[in-house]
Amino acid sequence: MSIQNSILESAQKWLSDFFDPEVKKEIRAMLDNQTEELQDRFYKTLEFGTGGMRGIMGTGTNRINKYTLGRSTQGLSLYLQKQFGKTGLKVVIAYDCRHNSKSLARTVAEVFSANGIQVYLFSELRTTPELSFAVRYLGCHAGVVLTASHNPPEYNGYKVYWQDGGQIVPPQDGEIIAEINSLDYQDIKFEAQPELITEIDTEVDEAFMEASVKNGSFGVEGKEDLSIVFTALHGTSITAIPEVLKRAGYTNVNLISEQSIPDGDFPTVESPNPEEPEALKMALSRGKAIDADIVIGTDPDSDRLGIAVKNTTGTLELLNGNQTMVLMTRFLLDQQSKKGFQGNEFIATTIVSTPMMQAMAKAYGVECKTSLTGFKWIAKMIRDYPDQHFIGGGEESFGYMVGDFVRDKDAVTAALLACEIASWAKAKGSSFYQELLNCYVAYGCYRERLVSLTKKGMDGAVQIAEMMRRFRENPPLTLDGSAVIRIDDYQNATSKDTLSNATRTIDLPKSNVLIYTTEDGTRLAARPSGTEPKIKFYISVCGAVSSVNQYDRTKSELESKIDRVLKDLKLDE
């Protein structure tokens, strides 16, 4: 095959003496054969995006390796020095169970230290929420976690947190990207200053778990009667969730031992993503066998949470992220109401999550702030509104944040909160599921579905861009027969009323997202994923339910409506 000259030149630069001998050997072999593999590894530089990097591990500019991460760390080091001065800088680093995470974390620590920055490095794998907590606990200027979240085993990643414990947002993200892009690989300082690297573990663990129990438990009854099945899916949550549940008073916690051992191959699942039912198959089987009340699973870095609870027939049913978020938020609002609302409270959600959050906020008389997709934007809200009290919030992608002691989605505290709700409900003769149905009666029955289309490689990126272009230039006029009355284009920051042709400005940072809303409340959102080679479509529909007994019928009607929307858009193929 013919390889572009730019790709060959990019690869040949990795033959200089700066790169390790084994790297140069691998590059020479690829240059000799000039395969598609060479093209994929060098057709672009793996970008440091608005939250960090995520990609396949290996040699090359389009891969996660010591050089691509070293360049990002060098740029971040220089940026920190410009912002805070060259003395007294501190960062904290954590890593998950993935292959090479520990060695890459050590490399990142060495680059920071080579730039004169004090580094706190977790001695073993830890959860992402603990890293977020540790940034503020240790008084650091930034934090880094090595993780690819729920991506396949060949991936790894690098997420950056600012001094407030939240992921970087504007203007820091763009300024850091500019700093990184100004560097060559030869600019990386790899000569570590070992005296500046301190390993941490127990002290921070204790502080984090104490804070998790404090924020996630509410003195409910029935803890000893709640039967829990928990799986870490080979990830980091095994270091925190069992102990947090124990300290909160839960004694009947059944671990899936086969999935409790951290393993970057994730050998017992096709994907370590609790959003996918197959990932919890083993835990659900155990739950059925012991008649468990609740089954909980987390992704590798323990920020996403999957839950299954008994439905009205006593069968364990997987909930989606919207359902879990709604019930957790309602429970927290009820707890706050017992203390009394002060008028400055708010909950938070994202533009592609269920509109029920706004309906519920209205019912409680609190504000619901809505952000772009991603918890970094919810963390930014907390920072931007210091005089307001954040109760809790989440998004459809199986993430939730309880209070503000962690500034990212936190499956550790959310797992505890889920058990608190289940215990409280069971003790009063109800259930987690029954309380969810009560929400549908109170605020409307919302049903959502996510369709993700994977488009890998250079051609995939082109296909995704073309799909978004077509939706912009030829927007749907109706969805299931209901006229589209509003088009929100977050890339252009415009919201258009199609009936009056009036346009208003969206007061959020620009993002490549399109949302279409119809006259009957049906909503379609389209966005390319920021972390995976996917384009995602979010469909939301709603209907009224006057009693719990009507739920099954209304649910079926709404699911059929979603099917018709997907068929109209040719997304059901």
From TrEMBL:
The EC number(s) this enzyme carries: 5.4.2.-
Transmembrane segments: none
InterPro entries: A-D-PHexomutase_a/b/a-I, A-D-PHexomutase_a/b/a-I/II/III, A-D-PHexomutase_a/b/a-II, A-D-PHexomutase_a/b/a-III, A-D-PHexomutase_C_sf, A-D-PHexomutase_CS, Alpha-D-phosphohexomutase_SF
Molecular function terms, GO-annotated: isomerase activity
Domain spans labelled Alpha-D-phosphohexomutase alpha/beta/alpha: 47-185, 219-310, 320-438
PROSITE patterns cross-referenced by the UniProt entry: PGM_PMM
Gene3D superfamilies given in the database record: Alpha-D-Glucose-1,6-Bisphosphate, subunit A, domain 3, Alpha-D-phosphohexomutase, C-terminal domain
N-terminal signal peptide: none
Highest taxon of source: Bacteria
UniProt keyword annotations, A-Z: Isomerase, Magnesium, Metal-binding, Phosphoprotein
Cofactor(s) this protein requires: Mg(2+)
Annotated PANTHER family: PHOSPHOGLUCOMUTASE 2B-RELATED (PTHR45745:SF1), PHOSPHOMANNOMUTASE 45A (PTHR45745)
Family the UniProt entry places it in: Belongs to the phosphohexose mutase family.
Name recorded for this polypeptide: Phospho-sugar mutase
